[in-house]
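Build the 3D complex.
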Amino acid sequence: MTNIPILKERKKQIYHKGEGVFDLTCDTKSLAGSISQRACVFCGSRVVLYPIADALHLIHGPIGCASYTWDIRGALSSGPELHRMSFSTDLRERDIIFGGEKKLYASLVQLIDTYRPNAAFVYCTCIIGIIGDDVDSVCKRATEEKGIPVLPVHSEGFKGTKKDGYKAACESLSMLVGTGSVENIGRYAINIMGEFNIAGEAWTIKEYYENMGLEVVAVFTGDGRVENIKRSHGASLNVVQCSGSILRLAQIMEEKYGIPYIRVSYFGIEDMSKALYDVAAHFKDNPGIMKKTKEIVRNEIDAIYPDLLRYKKALSGKKAAIYVGGAFKAFSMIKALRSLGIDVVLAGSQTGNKDDYEVLRDMCDEGTVILDDANPLELSKYCIEKGADLFVGGVKERPIAYKLGIGFCDHNHERKISLAGYSGMINLAKEVYSSVLSPVWKFAPQRMIS
Amino acid sequence: MKTREKIEYKATSNACKLCSPLGASFVFRGIERSIPLLHGSQGCSTYIRRYLISHFNEPVDIACSNFTEETAIFGGGANLKLAVENIIKQYNPELIGIATTCLSETIGEDVSLILKGYNKKNFDENFPEIVSVSTPSFSGTHIDGFHGAVRAVVDSIAVKKKISTKQINIFPGMLSPADLRHLKEIVSDFSTNYVMLPDYSDTFDGPLWTEYQEIPEGGAKIEKIAFMGDAVASIEFGRVLSGEESAGKMLESRFNVPCHSLGFPIGINETDAFFKALENITGKPVPEKYVKDRGRLIDSYADGHKYVFDARAVVYGEEDLVTGLASFLSEVGIIPIICASGGESGLLRQKILDIIPDAEKIGIRIIESADFVEIGEEARKIDPDFFIGNSKGYKIAREMKKPLIRAGFPIHDRLGGARIVHVGYRGAQQLFDTISNTIIATRQEASPVGYTYM
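Done.
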């Protein structure tokens, strides 16, 4: 046990499986003073749109928001890399007093002329609404004058949680969708949604689908291109990964264009295979697709299975803590880690909803701690109490794990290693193995006492 | 000639600066049992935490009052107090350092008014000290947040108790934890009674733990900060800071504590001035070990002088760091051909000229309020030998196929940013060896022969 106290208000967001009635509070704003691992609305929008590589991403506000999000995702592009630049209107005191519209307009003109993007996104940060800037009309004017779509993203940081930022991004994207030609798009065409091409993951997934005989119209938003997004309404199925981030857009496209969507995950053998099978099942009228899918799955699994067994042998019986942004990723990770013989003793997310946590509860073993919107104290407390050997999370969780002598696997957007698909499963195993079994932990004081 | 108006209406591309609450967070982490609290959106604290964690590889707990839409309309008083209460419950701090953000400043929050009557005096002994600083990110940069927080801490805690303490106050500026450790070693070799503010040498660079440390051990002691008004002298580093309202100057005007305003002690010239100040304050001579450090450093300057002479460096970062590095580089014969900072004091040019009077004649370009796109454009015009600064210059260095010598903050693409020593003879030694060897390695690799000797 540790001496770390849990705040009264936070107790409702923590559940020990097997103890009492399950009634986890979630989908709420973070508690003031509890050091949440969440970011803000702006962050939600920024991460969704970030990988669109031929668009200008202009952050309207004082400098911080742009500085902290400069080149922070491992989202690769096969061509232009405009997304790796950081642009800000860098509002100063006088702009706060007199308004930032002029500066926004001037910045847009200057940047569009310099970089010739195919679209521009203008992210509103906290103070934009408060100082009364009419960003929509500045964007409209720039659209007319510059001949490219200039889209406002209403992502003021305090107006909700990261999830609201996802929605704001989806709404901006929906303004692009449907503005391109759908000529030459075939019957078996899909959009890959909620895949951000971290370390080239979207390319791996795209290849699977293409080998199944499908056409990929657009990827939202990994290695994203404005032109593909514009014509994405020509697809006949939206395949949505990543629980919250892009679901809103899939819903809009269903309402507006009648495109159905299915939800999938590409992490771990089980979910990866299910994703391909589910997509194949959607195109029932073409049995050839399912046939090819079965072949692909078999070949891919055969290729990695011997290695996987080797890792499993080394890792069996180890215990893991998972704390990620979206709950969907947590589901996949539980399964993926189980396939490596690792038990999950802590599972949580920043943005899960009621349904997500019910699934999570059903998946977890007795005694597992389930957390919503956790803070470093809670994470460290339960890692120690549950004897975790591994922590799966993002950069902010990494030092918590290391300080306590616990191995770590980065599963967030900054990573440089592909963890999706079948090859990604082997990378995951390698990552986990190289941290959990490192000899350095024998010097860690926390490991010596436990 | 650009008009001022036009300059102001330019977008900032790949900024060479951060927002001011980040600087304040540095300071509040550098006080014993203290925790920073940002009065703003959840993202403010999370982004700053992530930025600091990627550099220090340490847990960085920064609290937030967590604005919502209602807060933005009706004011953040309730949220701020709730945050303070929750921090006390979980972290039990001795000091909570509150920094505002662009959001709370824009809606006109008056933190000191909100907190009126909400302090130690009205509660009990265990109630923490609360210090607040105004750090709107639309005015100044992270370095202004840093110095503003130092000033706010001194302003609210330091008094004159009329006790003879012989204490020396050190205001180091924004240096690495290893720098702070080295400065403490130096000062303590002259006098055991000193206080350094901030002192994050342990809190940002500590060992592994057996249990999560709510607030890592270390930091400037609040009792010592309270004695600052009785100190025999203050030493503060930063030639640019010397042109501004500073904590050291506040102590001088308020309590007659003499303030020695020095440059960042990088290189022999600036470090000599620091040792001289310590000699003057304590009346003690420079300890033998530093005389020897200095001797070895000069010996290495002799060994390496030819390799570095007339090499041209692009230097960027905070204004005082750039000024300090420029002083070091020029004393060994390297031309800091571009001196750039996102800082906005308007003093950089003059401070570089103070150190290198013929800077303009030899073609040194001094760029104030710079961003990395501008730095890149200028660098491409002059084909420099290397870059020296934080890791955000890597993109340009990579495009130009020039080496980047990492210094300052942030170092996000290498281990050990916290362990870089810039200051003192030892820091100069580390810098000189790294730079010389980088130049030698570049020549060695380019050589068709590949000699195994120099």
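Chain B touches chain A through 74 residues (CB under 8 Å).
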